Every structure is written in structure tokens, then in C-alpha cells.
């Protein structure tokens, strides 16, 4: 029985620059060959004009209405980072950032690339701050670095997810104070804890050895931690029960691993797949093909296209697409015996450097999939394909149907 390899280029959708997009410009013979033998279309990850986050779009793509199941990004980040969330825990997504002497954010990502030893220093500092928080507020704190500047923070105690972000979501603005979003004592306590952590980190990060090294090299300092996306784990019916699909996910990003785990996918890691635009895909592609023998669906997440987009790096985005395609080349014959889906979770145009709300291209190949006349995978071509314009919520039912696993509706 054939299985499905689903390749998702995070933030892969784009707008034309000098008449072309990265998908159009990239030399990707494997993907384009499958495109020429399959069906194409365009997809609104959530709905037309909605500017999705990677969390809400992945929920939709996996077949779960984000308006029903989304409870904040932090919970998925924590789950994907390997932290076990208990009932009542509140998790935040975090950025290590750089602020100036007035507390104004000058780089929300502290240069983006945070070395492993630097991340470990930050974890040690946060552990010290956490001990103080527990003594002062009776709230336990768990912090873990994930990829580059990213991390997760979990609060355990009489806490609430009803607090505002400290991340201003833009440079040139001050780090915000968390505010309770309702009148509960739990929300007030949580805001007080978050503000204490923010202020303590700003003061004590001055002593980080990492910052001494960074200052000597003229690099952005790690002198602020920005919190956003407070959330808790929702109750989600697993894919196996909802769609009768056994799923596996290969991803290097905590958020995507968390969403995949939340919907019941088994998680896998591959050497070289760390969630950056410099990832290597040979081992991930090899693993994906091996897993096709054991699972109905194998989801391969490619983060580098989004990272390059946020950097405004057109050539880097093209390079990520080309390297993934090259990694698939040795398995072309195997792929042609199975189903293949290629798409994106949202557009992150190079010229905008942020998520936008336009649709993204999607391709479905399979031995028995209707073939249209589209021969190249891109935003400029897929719109005229046989799939037409679909929603993210339509993808999983379509996959289940082709696999013969979906239940008939009615008699």
C-alpha cells in the first residue's frame, strides 16, 4: 500500500520579486517532475486574507480548526521541546533579544544565531531566577532553549494564561510589562511573575560570559527575554482516531514538533535538521523514505525557507528549496510509487519579512491522482491546476481519502 510523504516549506510562499518567486527560481527537478505528473492548486492555510502563525496554520493543515483548538503557541513550543505539561501549567514562547540602554528593543532575535554554550548559560541564569520566583511567589519556573534565539518558559502553580505579551513584536519599542487580561488573582500573579523574570534577566544578563564575548566581537548582546503566546494544552483527538491515519513527523523546530505531537504523530529527528536556513537534508530525506514503510503519512518540515524570508535573503531561500530537492533525488523512484504533497504553511515574502495572508501553492502527486497541465511548482503556476483553491483544513481529509482510510459520509 502506498503512503504519503508531505514536504512542507515553512514560510515558503512568496510574492514576485522582479517577476519571480523563490519557488519559481529554484532548480528543483524532483519536485517539478512530480508536479508535472500530479495535481496543483493554491491553498488558504486558514481562510482568505487571514495572516496565519505557524502554529495555527499547522493545526489547520493537520485537520483541526484553529478557532476551536488553538490555546496559545507556548504550549505547543513546550511540548515540542520535550517538556511535559501538567493540567494548569502555562507555557510561553520566548525570544532572546537585544535592547539598548533605555530598554528599547533593537533586535528581537539577538542576532538570531545563539550558540549552544550561550544557550546553556542562559538556561543556568533562568534556573537561578526560577529559584527566587518559587521562594517569592510560590510558582515553579522551567526554561529551556530550543533553536537559535528561541526558547520556552513554563510556569506551574496558581497561574493563568490570561496575560499579555512582553514582546512588542517590533524593534524600536520598549519591552512591555505583562498585564492581566482578566480580574482573576491567577492572572495578576502570573503577570507579576513574568515581570519579575523580565526585570531580573535584564539586570543579571550583564554578567553573562556570552555577552562579554559578544561585546568583544561587536555582536548583539543577549540582554532581554521576550515572552509571548501564553497558552495551555488543549484536548485534541489524535489523527489515528480522527482520520484513521498513522502519522510521523520529522522536524527540528520545537513548535512544529509540539503541534505534531499534540495531534498524535510520532516524532523523529535527523542529523543536520536543526531548524535553520543552513540545515542539511540528506539524513532527513533518507529517514522519511524509510518511515514510509511504517506509516501512512510522513511529514517533513523545512524551516529554512521561513528563516531566509525573515532575513530578506532571496538567494538563501532558493538555496534551501534546491538543497531539499537534491536530498530527495536518490529516492525519486520510491516517491513515484507513493503519494507526495508539497506545500507551505503560509507566505513570508522576502520583501515583507513577515507572514502575510495570501494563498500558497500546493501539489499532490500519486499514481492515481488526476494529472493537470502544470509542470512547475510555484505561486506563478499552481493557481491554474486541477485542485483549484482549497483550505488548509481540506488537506488531511484529501490525504485520508486517497489512502482509502476515510469513512463514508452517509449511506
Summarize the helices and strands and which ones pair or pack.
Blueprint lengths: L3 E6 L12 H4 L3 H8 L2 E6 L9 H8 L4 H4 L3 H8 L9 E10 L5 E3 L8 H22 L2 E6 L4 E7 L28 H20 L4 H9 L6 E8 L7 H4 L4 E4 L3 H9 L3 E3 L13 H10 L5 E6 L1 H7 L3 H15 L3 H5 L2 E6 L15 E6 L22 E4 L3 H8 L9
Parallel strand pairs: 1-10, 1-11, 2-13, 8-9, 8-10
Antiparallel strand pairs: 2-12, 3-4, 3-6, 3-7, 5-6, 11-12
Write a structural description.
By secondary structure, the protein is of the alpha/beta class. It has two domains: 4-70 and 236-402, Alkaline Phosphatase, subunit A, CATH 3.40.720; 78-231, no CATH class. 34% of the residues lie in helices and 18% in strands. It is built from 15 helices and 13 strands. It has helices at residues 22-25, 29-36, 54-61, 66-69, 73-80, 116-137, 185-204, 209-217, 239-242, 254-262, 282-291, 304-310, 314-328, 332-336, 395-402, and strands spanning 4-9, 39-44, 90-99, 105-107, 140-145, 150-156, 224-231, 247-250, 266-268, 297-302, 339-344, 360-365, 388-391. The strands form two sheets. Strands 9-8-10-1-11-12-2-13 form an eight-stranded mixed sheet, with helices on both faces. Strands 3, 4, 5, 6 and 7 form a five-stranded antiparallel sheet that branches. Strand 3 and strand 4 form a beta hairpin. The longest helix has 22 residues, at 116-137. The chain is globular, with a radius of gyration of 22 Å. The mean pLDDT is 94.
Amino acid at each position: 500500500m502506498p503512503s504519503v510523504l508531505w514536504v512542507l516549506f515553512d514560510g515558503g510562499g512568496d510574492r514576485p520579486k522582479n517577476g519571480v518567486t523563490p519557488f519559481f527560481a529554484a532548480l528543483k527537478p524532483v519536485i517539478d517532475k512530480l508536479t508535472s505528473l500530479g495535481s496543483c492548486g493554491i491553498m488558504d492555510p486558514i481562510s482568505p486574507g487571514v495572516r496565519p502563525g505557524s502554529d495555527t496554520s499547522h493545526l489547520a493543515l493537520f485537520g483541526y480548526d484553529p478557532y476551536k483548538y488553538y490555546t496559545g503557541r507556548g504550549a505547543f513550543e513546550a511540548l515540542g521541546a520535550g517538556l511535559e505539561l501538567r493540567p494548569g501549567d502555562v507555557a510561553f514562547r520566548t525570544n532572546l533579544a537585544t535592547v539598548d540602554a533605555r530598554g528599547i528593543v533593537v533586535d528581537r532575535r539577538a542576532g538570531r544565531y545563539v550558540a549552544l554554550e550561550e544557550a546553556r548559560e542562559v538556561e543556568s541564569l533562568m534556573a537561578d531566577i526560577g529559584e527566587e520566583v518559587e521562594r517569592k511567589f510560590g510558582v515553579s519556573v522551567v526554561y529551556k532553549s530550543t533553536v537559535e534565539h528561541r526558547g520556552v518558559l513554563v510556569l506551574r502553580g496558581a497561574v493563568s494564561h490570561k496575560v499579555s505579551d512582553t514582546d512588542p513584536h517590533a524593534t524600536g519599542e520598549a519591552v512591555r510589562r505583562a498585564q492581566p487580561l482578566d480580574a482573576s488573582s491567577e492572572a495578576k500573579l502570573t503577570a507579576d511573575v513574568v515581570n519579575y523574570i523580565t526585570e531580573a534577566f535584564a539586570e543579571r544578563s550583564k554578567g553573562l560570559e556570552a555577552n562579554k564575548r559578544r561585546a568583544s566581537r561587536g555582536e548583539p548582546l543577549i540582554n532581554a527575554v521576550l515572552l509571548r503566546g501564553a497558552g495551555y494544552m488543549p484536548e485534541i483527538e489524535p489523527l489515528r482516531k480522527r482520520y484513521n491515519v498513522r502519522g510521523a513527523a520529522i522536524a527540528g523546530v520545537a513548535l512544529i514538533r509540539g503541534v505534531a505531537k499534540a495531534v498524535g504523530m510520532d516524532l523523529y529527528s535527523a542529523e543536520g535538521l536543526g531548524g535553520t536556513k543552513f540545515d542539511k537534508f540528506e539524513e532527513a530525506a533518507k529517514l522519511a523514505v524509510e518511515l514510509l514503510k511504517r506509516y501512512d503519512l510522513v511529514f517533513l518540515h523545512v524551516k529554512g525557507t521561513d528563516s531566509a524570508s525573515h532575513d530578506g535573503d532571496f538567494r538563501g531561500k532558493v538555496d534551501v528549496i534546491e538543497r531539499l530537492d537534491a536530498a530527495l533525488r536518490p529516492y525519486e523512484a520510491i516517491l513515484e510509487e507513493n503519494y507526495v504533497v508539497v506545500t507551505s504553511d503560509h507566505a513570508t515574502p522576502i520583501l515583507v519579512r513577515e507572514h502575510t495572508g495570501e494563498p500558497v501553492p500546493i501539489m499532490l502527486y500519486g499514481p492515481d491522482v488526476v494529472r493537470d497541465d502544470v509542470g512547475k511548482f510555484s505561486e506563478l503556476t499552481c493557481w491554474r491546476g486541477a485542485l483549484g483553491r482549497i483550505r488548509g483544513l481540506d488537506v488531511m481529509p484529501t490525504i485520508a481519502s486517497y489512502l482509502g482510510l476515510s469513512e463514508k459520509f452517509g449511506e
